[in-house]
Amino acid sequence: AKELGNNAFQLFSPDMGQQTQHRVDLEIRLRSAIAEEQLYLVYQPKVNLTSGEITGCEALIRWKHPEFGMVSPMQFIPIAEDSGLIIAIGDWVLRTACLQGRAWIDAGLPPICIAVNISVRQFLQQDLVAWVARTLQATGLPPEYLELELTESLIAQDIERVTQTTLQLKEIGVKLSIDDFGTGYSSLSYLRSFHVDTLKIDQSFVRNMLTETENATIVLAVIALAHSLKFKVIAEGVETEQHCKYLQMHDCDEIQGYYFSKPIAATEFASLLQSGQKL
Ligand code: C2E
Ligand code: CA
Ligand code: CA
Ligand code: CA
């Protein structure tokens, strides 16, 4: 791998023949990434389509390797999941996001909800609820300012158990959303029994909704479904004013995407929030 120098893309390309070896290399490097402080979070605003105000943000992980540069979470999160490293990484993510949320409150910024991604493997840990409660307590973030983004594939898991866990999470007061909604094999009847607050429409539908009617149909169906179940609905991957206008016209509640802002550093997010900038 050395002779590839600092070309991270080549090193970690999934198309390479020696895929397994590269996965192992990546896993070894990822193992030391937390201790060596190579991980950090960026924050992407979520804005309300009625008020135009920032209502929250999503914390997204970044990995900057000293030699290979930026490695995308699309590459290393699946490896973290397979290897079990996601537990340690997820713990770091939750703690860091909660500490950041607490720091923003202490700085007198308008209170907003911070969303953290929770992978299936994390969700199925026995001590998930206790872990979330413990982290909130340790960081001093009030539970209503934390949202957990769950993936739709949870619906393929043990329904009883997922229902119970979502209920317990509601009881400690955190918010729940279902990420990438529409891409999985959601059974709508189960969706009702999960104690979630928000459906997040997957960006693949949003990206193509103005050019392909099938995508618009799905976007409108998810908005209607969410509202009929008394859930909030947010569209991700909103890149243009036309996307925004269309979603506004069709009663989507919130948007997230490059149109308003890319994911940004904590200090930048604080300035944006402070400035009161609207959509
Ligand atoms: P996701 O949860 O669906 O996050 C949204 C992704 O879309 C992010 O990519 C974000 O940067 C990107 N995005 C936001 N707005 C736009 C837009 O307008 N256009 C386009 N083209 N893209 C946009 P990112 O940060 O590369 O993360 C990729 C995925 O990695 C995430 O997808 C999530 O599944 C996973 N991930 C990221 N951070 C974490 C984490 O802390 N824990 C876990 N378990 N997974 C994470
Ligand atoms: Ca997400
Ligand atoms: Ca998503
Ligand atoms: Ca996604």
How do the SSEs run, as a string of H and E?
HHEEEHHEHHEHEHEHHEHEH
Number of strands: 9
The secondary structure category is alpha/beta
- Radius of gyration, CA atoms, in whole angstroms: 19 Å
Q: Can you list the strand order of the major beta sheet?
A: 1-2-4-5-6-7-8-9
Distance between the termini: 45 Å
Major β-sheet annotation: 8 strands, mixed, barrel
The ligands bound in this entry are: ligand C2E, calcium ion
- The fraction of residues assigned to DSSP E strands is 15-25%
Which segments are poorly predicted (pLDDT under 50) over 5 or more consecutive residues? 1-9
Q: What is the approximate shape?
A: globular
The share of residues in helices is 40-55%
Q: Would you tell me the overall average pLDDT?
A: 92
Q: How many helices does DSSP assign?
A: 12
Protein name: PAS domain S-box-containing protein/diguanylate cyclase (GGDEF) domain-containing protein
Keywords: Membrane, Transmembrane, Transmembrane helix
Domain EAL: 23-277
Organism: Methylophilus rhizosphaerae
Task: Report on this structure.
Residues 1-9 have low confidence and may be disordered. α6 (128-139) packs parallel to α7 (159-172). An eight-stranded mixed barrel has the order 1-2-4-5-6-7-8-9, surrounded by four helices. The chain has helices at residues 8-12, 19-33, 73-83, 85-106, 120-123, 128-139, 159-172, 188-193, 203-208, 213-228, 241-249, 266-275; strands at 39-48, 54-65, 69-71, 113-118, 146-151, 175-181, 198-201, 232-236, 254-256. The N and C termini lie far apart (45 Å). It is globular, with a radius of gyration of 19 Å. The protein is built from twelve helices and nine strands. By secondary structure, the chain is of the alpha/beta class. Helix content is 47%, strand content 20%. The chain binds ligand C2E and calcium ion (CA) (3 copies). Ligand C2E binds at residues 44, 60-61, 72-74, 77, 93, 117, 119, 179-180, 203, 236-239, 257-258, 263.
